[in-house]
């Protein structure tokens, strides 16, 4: 299967919803915590220190949109 076929496959795992991650309920990573801290400060928002990996990824996505950091990359990222 080439990359174009993989990207269009109905069950592609290239970008999974954080709710479907097998490790999504684990505590957020150090990298997520650091990036969330930066984004939260830029957005003037408080930061929840007790997020799971999945919750942190979704919060990062929201804060990226709010701060403009997520613009221009063309595809969703999972952090």
From TrEMBL:
InterPro entries assigned: DUF3072 (IPR021425)
Task: Return the annotated region ranges for Disordered.
Answer: 1-79
Here the segments flagged for biased composition (Polar residues) are 1-11, 63-79
Residue ranges annotated as compositionally biased, kind Basic and acidic residues, are: 50-61
Q: Which residues form a coiled coil?
A: none
Q: What is this protein called?
A: DUF3072 domain-containing protein
Which organism does this record belong to?
A: Noviherbaspirillum denitrificans
